[in-house]
Amino acid sequence: MISGLQAHELHMALEAKGFSKVTKRPIRTTARSSRKLQSEEMTPQLLPHEQLTFTDENQKNKSTDEELNSRYAKGDIRIVTESARYSLAGILSMLQEKVSPEGKPDAPTEFRYKLDPEYQRRHRWSDERKSRLIESFLMNVPVPPVFLYERDLARFEVMDGRQRLTALSEFYENKFSLTGLQYWSDLEGRTYSQLPSKIRDGIDRRYISSIILLKETAATDEQAALLKKIVFERLNSGGVKLSGQETRNAVYHGPLNALCLELSANKTFRKLWGIPAELETTQFEDNDEDSDTTGESTASGIRMFEKMEDVELVLRFFAYRQISGYKAGLNKITEFLDIFLMKGNNFPKRVLNNYRTMFNSTIEFLWNALGIDAFTIISDKKRQGRPSKIVYDSIMLIASSPEIKAAHAKLLRNKSILRDELISLYKRDQAGAVPFFSGRRTNYVDTQKRDALIKEAFFNALRKAK
Predict the structure, then answer these.
(1) Residue 229: which of 218, 106, 140, 185 has the closest Cα?
(2) Segment 374-405, tens digit of pLDDT
(3) Which of 80, 224, 256, 324 could form a disulfide with 218 if both were Cys (CB 3.0 to 4.6 A apart)?
(4) pTM, 2 dp
(5) Is the dihedral of CA 26, 30, 34, 36 positive or negative?
(6) Where residue 229 falls among pLDDT bands split at 50, 70, 90?
(7) Burial of 75 (C-beta count, 10 Å sphere; 0-12/13-18/19+)
């Protein structure tokens, strides 16, 4: 026996909401059934202390001129900076220098210049791009300054310019050979130590500039976080546009964000999205061809990793559990995830531990039940389509629900029946004018419809299972 609705009661409930019976007819809904669906939401059972509220953060009373003048006079939101220049010849020793944390002489040493704060991107420059940077210094072409934040007195983290500093460090360590040079092609294939002496000297005498946000910029950790956010967003407003999660990772790092980063490395999860299992950083650049091997890493999977979309997918699973509290649905998914992560970083540890178990067990179940096709619109064709976030949202939610989780073993024993039910569901849905399992269906009511349809498929499989 299964817990929750019995099969007959489920069919009656679904029909009352405008859901078709299991037939070959396309799935349609009326305005009346849509209104009824809104009043009968499919809200998952939340954990203790998990419930969040979502309000309009932008509605604030405007300050008066007097208040604005006072705020400016006090130096509110004002950044203190200084400039510095570093000799390229000294970059390697500078980046390798270690010091004790401020005020803790007996603590383990740390790098004076921290290259990998939470907000740095996963993308790693190719050797060709590193080589072009070296060529720029060789030709004395101006290079933009790096931006540093003084986290403690005379201890810094790199806000912008990590790739430049890493490229210089690796160059002086002979870790790559010059390649793709435009004007100094005769130097192709050489490392730093293999360059002619005058060329080495010419590079050594160059400098890279920096702008440092000093520690006295902020009086508190909270103010420091705010100011780093302001600078980070403006530094990254030009050039390569950051993804939502890259920015989120910088601005809202905390316990929940750390958990999402951890869980994104789940090897089964990576298989399902075509992300290389052991990938840490990538040199992938501008290759739009996808792999023909299902389950292997794909170009789209590597791009997802590079833009941190895998981390966003983990966050999305947790946030989607509370979509009923955010009536904009997926129309404002970036804002929804921002708010959820900002508030969710304050979840108690037991909620995060439950999240970890919930995510890992659900991924494992879906892999065992549906294989590599778990997040695709499964069909009876030999070759399936790409994984879909729309499918991911609903099938992860339903598969992790207590009533379905209690029946995991039974569903695994009858996984061919579950697969057939999902094929039937997707086939009927795709026959509609605007399928519910499509990127055009992003309203809140659409999310509820998809959840109900996936739930129907699971219960139909349980009803037919032995």
Answers:
(1) 218
(2) 999 999 887 678 899 999 999 999 999 999 99
(3) 224
(4) 0.69
(5) negative
(6) low
(7) exposed
